[in-house]
Amino acid sequence: MTFSPQLEARFAELLTHYPEGRQRGALIPMLMYAQDEVGAVTQELMEELAKRLGITTLQVDEVTGYYSMLHKKPQGKYHVQVCTNVACMLRGGAELYDHACKKLNLGHKQTAADGKFSLEEVECIGACSWAPAIQVNYDFHHEVTTGKLDEILEGLK
Amino acid sequence: MKLYNEPSPLETRVISKRFGTQNSWRVDTYLATGGMQAFKKACEMTQDQIIDEVKASSLRGRGGAGFPTGMKWSFVPRQSELPKYIVVNADESEPGTCKDRLLMEHDPIQMVEGILIAAKAVGASKGWVYIRGEYRYLIDHMDAVLKECYERNLLGKNILGTGFDFDLYTQTGAGAYECGEESALLESLEGKRGVPRIRPPFPAVSGAFQCPTVLNNVETFSTVPAILNGGGKWYADLGTPRNGGTRLVCLAGHVNKPGVYEVPLGMNMMYFLNEIGGGMLGGRKLKAIIPGGSSCPILSAEECDVAMDYDTMAKAGTMLGSGGMMVMDETTDMVKVALRIMRFYNHESCGWCIPCREGTTWLRKMLARIVDGNGAARDVDLIGDLAQSMLGRTFCPLGDAAALPTISLIKKWRPEFEAYVAKNPFASTELVQVA
Amino acid sequence: MSNLVKLTINDTPVEAPAGTLLIDAAKTAGIEIPAFCYYEGMSLQAACRMCLVEIEKAPKLMAACVVPVAEGMVVRTESEAVVKARKTTLEFLLTNHPLDCPVCDKGGECELQDMVFKYGAGESRFTEVKHHVPEKQWSPVVFYDGPRCILCYRCVRVCNEGMGVGALGVVNRGVVSEIAPSHGDHLECDECGSCIDICPVGALTSGAYRYKTRPWEMEHTGTICTHCSDGCKTTLGTRNGEIVRGNNRDRSGVNGEFLCVKGRYAFDFNHHPERLQAPLLRVDGKLEEVSWSRALQVLVEKFKAVRDAKGNVGVIGSTRTSNEEAFLLQKFARTVFGTNNIDHHRSGDVATLLDALSGKTGALGTSADCYTSKAVLIIGADLSQQHPFLANQIRANVRHQKTPVYVVTPGAVREDKTAKKAVRAGEDWLAAVENLKSSLASEKELLVVFGDAVKGEGLRKLVALGDSLGIPVKYIALVDYANSRGAMDMGLLPDLGPGYHAVEGKAGLTLPQMLAATDLDLVWVVGANPLKNASLGSSKAFVVVQDLFRTETAERADLVLPAASAYEKNGTVTNTCGEVQRLMKAADTVGAKTDLAMFGLIARGLGVNLGKVDADNVFAEIQKTVRGYNVPLPVIVTGGAAQTQAVNGRVPSNVLPELIRSAGDTLFTTGTLTKYSKVLNEVMEGPGGLYR
């Protein structure tokens, strides 16, 4: 499996971070950064990382399934994550999520047929004082209203 | 870098003093505003002197558990042949909490300096800042900051000519609340599932890669430079006895001025809410406050006239926790709050132990059924009983975190649960089977 | 003696060595602390929370499986809080556990059932929808029913820590966590089934056993596995005389609860449709079924004729029949036919080892030594493939005592992973061992386990090297099958009689010589298949074969007698370490007779007195006449293993090293029997070969 030179460089750098023989520490960062490039944690990716770190594919699979940001199926080009946890809920997070569902015609963890959008109701993303908050891919948007949400979504090409 | 909320003049800004200033995250700015003086001071001190100074400050862990920091550092064995490590818990995932973000955005080198002082105190050579995966922008930001620190010799070999070497890296999480628990974080750092470890041994003895490790929250490390600069006693005196200093409180919910504010420990909660937080949104009546993240027992309005420090909060039957304060007004549906909290813990339960895995699932299903209008009278007692059955019996504190708010909700707002159940035309004391 | 800690459990004073876990200390005092995830010998989990107990001064209930005893500790295991905690933990467990006990294989011997019966609540308060996922088949022998799984992680640990395989893991998070196999949707592993046995509930079930019977309808017989030479006890569950299950949950035998794929599943050859059920006689060039009386009549006539004509006889014995049968066979041949043309397929140089160790005591290693020895040297064997139990013992030794293991093998082996040093060497193994000498000499003691490459002069040099280390050294000569060792001890050899005494008169023909000879009048093959890849030189020979199947050798026979398997007879066998254990008849035969019974019938037909031909009587004779076999009978009779110590004098053997060659069976082969085991042919790992 081949990766971009930038990702390879990142992997090489990561592997220097851990004590000798404990390079497995790089697994989760490698999965995260590779997922960004590959689009998902594919079987091929799991096998490749297992080989590189000297562990079994099952061990990679165990880790992949544990973390909610790692996903085996590709998400939309824009992955819209709406927080509905308590702080956001108190400021209209649930309504915002319902609005996003209708607007995108998607449900929780669904991806649009054209692959542009996917939607996820997420747990607290650490923006509680500026609730309700959403993330589109890694970008935060604070104090989001339904109107602001429409603007954000319409601004995405 | 812009601030997300206006600061308040009533704050005591010790660790947030650089927030919002121009280029506050750059080495030049940091050095020009008194940065690295504490580290240089530490280099002139013995390990015990540093630890004693931190003990004198009565600094307690800002992650949630509130363990005395100096004492934690003193547990690291001096004689051990093993390398020693520093791990920063920047997994900020406790619902209601958004302060470590700001510390790393606005004043990351302050944290780096705190880490270096801790490293000096325990003889560590390497460290990782474990940042939750959702904060990718922050990981990239920290990577740039660390790069500049290396370039300017704030990290690496012979730091600022002191002869001290230290390496610091970022490490991304991948979406798991459980990794905020220190031993689960260490598992994750080692490339494994974020399942907590059996303790003892504690990280101070066997932590990252089974070596002695100091593991503290971002805010805890960020506080250390100020303690060395101003002295432990000065810092302690900012707060109340045994509850030294200031801390960042994340104010959220039904208030006029939500935001992150630095206040001395021991400030009255109602004063904070009204004077700094600008009072209740829309002038509505206060109903409840979650004082320090969703894992805390919830205070009813009449219980909120308390001092915000570890000991007073404990006496009030709750916790200062992570500083995530969520304010709820009279319109809040407490049954929905209970469901939302339980959904969270059920989603985040690692599944390792039975009471947490099955207990949170059962409670989540039952609360959802009640909210959907299919509750039965017997459910109300059962919620409390199940939560009690998880309390203190799980492998890690997540079970307690799910149980504590639930117990307080059912105790303090029981009529709301009963009202939901009463609305169900089929509800009776008899068992109701729902497909 | 380590210092004892005094504590109180339920007002009973208890003493336990420092470091003992509370759960174990309670057990020694006869107090049960229930647990699912705690499993002796495996890593600690503290996951199931069943073992929560009250400890005075502790702020909350503590998990007894991770708390070591402490001086003055006051523990309560039956207090109100503890009882309630257990009750709710079980209630939690049952929320997602399907209550399909009536159709669950585990029903009746399920730890969850037992726990709920003993500690659980009578009524469930759970009225929500259960989480359900469909059952999965991971291999021909392993099925996984996710909803039944209580996530105690025993299976994961036994596979990873116990077997050193690591084919099971935990995927997903929270309530949807489940156990997953090594290759996505299927397992590639040792197929040992340890995960199934260790599963406290019916989450992991056996392809061989599922839906065959209810546990209480079975009868259980502990006997010795007939496959490799490690001598594991396998407890065979039979229903209506048919074997339906193999396991060893009572931990009897040298192997405790360990069994490999063969010990657990490969009993299935026993009921193979091609099992011979009637004698076959060659009539007009074809083998035809005949009655036993007809077969014996033909046989006795032929034997009489050959005996009376002093014809040339060749006798080939078995590496799987009992000691009693091997003993009686050579006695028959030597006394009735007056011949030393007796041999069997030799797979390890036991004779030279015993000779080289002559005069020494305590130099023969046992299977227990593999677990206790403070250092181990493996030469020329892929132990995990060829001797899975000994390999398991050594793994446990490494896991629990961090014992250094040295590996000298021609290719990669599983033991490499945990070895202190692993060296690749084939024929040049001796040089490789010499290179390790200084390391070996620094150990406190050494157990040397060696395969068929170590023989003759090389073996003598190895023992000399061992002597020069200045530390106690023990040896185990590895051989192939369940009674390969016994065949030698009993004198199925042309130059050595029982107990390695020189034979009277001239040494007989070796096995290859018998096959090559053109002048044999009678060839008598008992439980062996020498013609698998060879032909018989003597075209005139009348060939009598006693076997379970129509093997290649049986195809050449003039008379084939259907023989009982090891699971259908009583007797004893001797494992590769020289440990004697008892075979117990588990299954009924249909048409077949034990070899011993056949010898008796033939002797009676010939009018020869071989003494009383039953297993106990023959063993009594063995005890008297075979060097090293005067072992305490009670040990064997009660199902134990007694080591033979046959090294009290020189062995006058002319060892022919070229005759010593292991068949090279893997985990998934077992010589001729491989063909007849459905399980071994179904698992996709296949034979695969050694040293991979």
Annotation field: number of helices of chain C: 22
What level of helicity do the residues of chain A show?
40-55%
What's the level 1 CATH class of the largest domain in chain A? Answer: Alpha Beta
Number of strands of chain A: 5
Number of domain modules of chain A: 2
Largest sheet of chain C: 7 strands, mixed
Q: Radius of gyration of chain A, Cα only, in angstroms?
A: 18 Å
Please report the two chains with the greatest interface, counting residues with C-beta closer than 8 angstroms to the partner's C-beta: A-B, 43 and 59 residues
Low-confidence stretches of chain A: none
CATH fold label of the domain at 280-347 and 484-662 in chain C = Rossmann fold
Observed structural traits:
heterotrimer; A: 157 residues; alpha+beta; Arc Repressor Mutant, subunit A; Glutaredoxin; 2 domains; 5-stranded mixed β-sheet; 7 helices; 5 strands; 13% strand; elongated; B: 435 residues; alpha/beta; Rossmann fold; Ubiquitin-like (UB roll); de novo design (two linked rop proteins); 4-stranded parallel β-sheet; 11 strands; 41% helix
Describe this structure in words.
Chain A is of the alpha+beta class. Chain A has two domains: 5-66, Arc Repressor Mutant, subunit A; 78-154, Glutaredoxin (3-Layer(aba) Sandwich). Chain A is built from seven helices and five strands, in the order ααααβααββββα. Chain A is elongated and about 50 Å long. The model of chain A has no long low-confidence stretch (mean pLDDT 97). Chain B has three domains: 27-238, 3-Layer(aba) Sandwich (Rossmann fold), CATH 3.40.50; 246-329, Ubiquitin-like (UB roll), CATH 3.10.20.600; 334-422, NADH-ubiquinone oxidoreductase 51kDa subunit, iron-sulphur binding domain (de novo design (two linked rop proteins)), CATH 1.20.1440. Chain B contains 17 helices and eleven strands. In chain B, the strands form three sheets. Chain B has a five-stranded mixed β-sheet with strand order 6-5-11-8-9, with no helix packed on it. In chain B, strand 2 (126-131), helix 7 (136-151) and strand 3 form a beta-alpha-beta unit. In chain B, helix 6 (108-122) crosses helix 9 and helix 9 packs across helix 10 (232-238). Chain B is globular. Chain C has 692 residues and is α/β, with parallel strands linked by helices. Chain C is built from 22 helices and 28 strands. In chain C, strands 15-14-25-24-23-16-17 form a seven-stranded mixed β-sheet. Chain C has a five-stranded mixed β-sheet with strand order 2-1-5-3-4, sandwiched between helices. Chain C has a five-stranded parallel β-sheet with strand order 20-19-18-21-22, covered by helices on one side. Chain C is globular and about 90 Å long. The relative contact order of chain C is 0.12. Chains A and B meet through helix 2, helix 4 and helix 5 of A and strand 3, strand 5, strand 11 and helix 13 of B.
